[in-house]
Amino acid sequence: MPFDITRVRAAYPALAEGHLHFDGAAGTQTAAPVVDAVTAAMRAALGNRSPAFGPGRRSLEIVAGARSAVADLLGVVPEGVVLGPSATALTYTLARTLGATWRPGDEVVVSRLDHDANVRPWVQAAERAGATVRWAEFDPDSGDLPVGQYADLLGDRTRLVAVTAASNATGAVPDVGAITKLAHAAGALVCVDGVHSVPHGPTDVPALGADFFVTSAYKWSGPHLAALVADPARWAGLRPDKLRPSADTVPERFEFGTPSFPLLAGVTAAVDHLAALDPDATGDRRERLRAGLTAARAYEEQVLARLLAGLAALPGVTVLPAPPGRCPTVSFRLADQAPAETAAALGAEGICLSHGDYYAYEYFTATGLRERGGAVRASVYHYNTVDEVDRLLAELGRLARR
Predict the structure, then answer these.
(1) Beta strands in 205-274 (DSSP E)
(2) pTM for the predicted model, two decimal places
(3) Residues 190, 212: contact at Cβ < 8 Å?
(4) Where's the Aminotransferase class V domain (predicted)?
(5) pLDDT digit string (tens) for 13-67?
(6) Which parts of 11-158 fold into alpha helices (H)?
(7) Taking a C-beta distance cutoff of 8 angstroms, is the pair 26, 358 a contact?
(8) Which of 121, 155, 303, 346 would staple 351 via disulfide (CB 3.0–4.6 Å)?
(9) pLDDT tens column, 246-296
(10) Full set of structural domains in the chain with CATH
């Protein structure tokens, strides 16, 4: 059946305020079931995790539910799901832990297309270990991340390859599967940043070949929490710094302090919400997620096509390149106007877009745009509409005629 955008939008209370939210890459609005789940958990009696009493058991169930939900979303097992406050924090934990095993002469490969959260933790860990950092470059004309360069970047001392599943700056989608095959052939591990990819279609981490994969719930209608997943056997071989009395089991070994149980209840609710995007979908939650996110992706592609066509028709608008098959994210500049000025002018009309470098530090430095204020980013999520795109384009046209 057609994607029921009216039904979908009704699930997001914040949309009633009337803003146009084209800043989903920085964080989506929260679905009503998530708000309800968090509220219900905060109203309930909760204790720190313990099998000895009811509120403690309830907290155990909430954590287990969140692990199971993320596992269904990503195609992994719950025992491999590490939960934490943000993708950045979790990646730093992993980088410190793996980096402690590196030695001078070892090598790490990072990409200039990535969000800095999948760059700087690895660069800093390499510097501490005396390891060498090697850089994968994007094609400035196509916006692609060529796979062929990895054959030259990888060697028998490569310990880790970090690569994004989708650029948060341009929407470019690298061939992660091909990159992981090359990395594994060289004996290297691969950490994939899925923060920008997971909201826009079904995810199968084993099919990608990722040894580690990170995602943030607030990019897919949920609360501000994240998850880093790996095979439980992979986690079992790693020893992070931790408090002596804290749990030494996997995955708890990598989670520091008492988690926010209400927000974890919201993670489960967010996954269930995504599994309900296609009301006709059947099967288990994993199957319903695949159906719902496939339908959402097809809908987003239609909205993105309208946006790209409209931007191409506007005088003075330059769109930063990305290859076909991009995620529904576009960065652009309006003539010589500072991106901050463009974003502020649109914001005054109730249109919300990000501007600057959005932490894609290496990308904007390499293009020379960072020193000029970066760009303006319009990111489409499944609650955006063609009518909203038309309003955005009309406002940009008005700015271009000034």
Answers:
(1) 212-216, 226-229
(2) 0.98
(3) yes
(4) 22-392
(5) 999 999 999 999 999 999 999 999 999 999 999 999 999 999 999 999 999 999 9
(6) 32-43, 54-74, 87-99, 120-129, 149-153
(7) yes
(8) 346
(9) 999 999 999 999 999 999 999 999 999 999 999 999 999 999 999 999 999
(10) 5-32+285-400 (3.90.1150.10), 35-273 (3.40.640.10)
Spatial distance between the Cα atoms of 253 and 274, rounded to a whole number of angstroms: 29
Residue 81 pairs with which residues in a beta bridge?
A: 229
Q: What is the DSSP letter of 29?
A: P
Long-range residue pairs from 352-356, CB within 8 A, at least 24 positions apart, any chain? 352/19, 352/20, 352/21, 352/22, 352/23, 353/22, 353/23, 353/377, 353/378, 354/23, 354/25, 354/26, 354/379
Q: Please give the Cα distance from 325 to 200 (Å, whole number).
A: 12
pLDDT digits (tens, 9 = 90+) for 78-127: 999 999 999 999 999 999 999 999 999 999 999 999 999 999 999 999 99
Query: C-alpha angle with apex 113: 72 to 393, nearest 5 degrees?
Result: 85
The whole-angstrom separation of Cα 373 and Cα 333 is 10
Q: Tokens standing for 241? A: 């710094």
d(CA 292, CA 299): 11
β-strand partners of 351? 20
